[in-house]
Amino acid sequence: MKQQFTAMALAFALAGCASQSTPVAPTPPKVASPTTAGTLTKRELADGLYEMALSPKGDALYVASAEGFKDVQGGVVYKLDPQSLKTLGLSHTDLKNFGMALSEDGQTVFVTHSLDGGLSALNTADGKVKARLLFPERNEKGLPFGARQILLHNDTLYVGAVADPAVIWVVDANTLKLKTRIKNTGKWMTGLHYSSQTGRIYAANGGGEILVINPRNHRIEQRWKPLGDKPALLLNIAEDRDTGRLFVTDNSKAKTTLVLDIRSGKVIKQLDIGDSLGVVYNAKRHEIYVSQRESGNVLSLDASTYAVKKRWSVKPNPNSLLLSADGETLFVTVKQPFNKDHSTTGPDSVVRIALNH
């Protein structure tokens, strides 16, 4: 995530009317073939790659793409083979795609359109956009609130707004109708996480807070500020359900990963591993994975001692992380630096890391 605090800048790091869409293409355009080196398989794919989702059967990897930001309209949702990273299909959308979530049955992929303040639902069978919701909120410059992270829980979508003050939109996942708004959520809603252990949603924001939200009544029950008055822009959240720990990253101010008690918000440990963006916990291997966008690494940490076990160099800028259901494969989107005109020097990549090697 770039550190300018605008919807576009936050979107660059990374949640209606009918969409112009193209069904999943049986013959995609020619692109670079995946390359394998040891445990890593890398595929240069396209400009503007952000979040990913894996099908319930593990046979399709969906990747949200905003495509280029200079003289390029719209985006693409890519469907890749999770083993080879070869393209299985793609769907063109008239808006740019950033955040992503997949329905439990694997039939619908949801994408957020950060620059346009909305989200779409796509049918995974044919790649067509089924529904679209654009939120009406505008900032002082007349621009839409940036729709960043998207969380699917109990047939409900929670979408965080990059705005000051921010909101969390609560949307019916089946109809894409706005149900309500969770207000007073601070500045720049970023990470969203649901814990089945506590039955609560945890929301990070750019003011250094973690909000504890009851999804039954959408009330904010607690507000934690783990670093106190120190500047912090908390980003992404992962959970170790067995020990009741939350892992929260900050890639802007504190440049750290926090380990918090999930019930009290107390800081158990502050990990001094450098800049931290994406974070994932692997219960089967008892490991924590952190992407370091500035340093160009993905780290594997021992979840008990917090010692670095492995360091994968995936330069230039690793971004989002996704873990397979069996805990044996880690997927990473790797971004290229932006030029001043929002162009890049080449396409972003998807990296597949085999963890059992």
TrEMBL record:
Signal peptide interval? 1-24
UniProt keyword Magnesium present: no
Q: Which UniProt keywords apply?
A: Signal
Q: What is this protein called?
A: YncE family protein
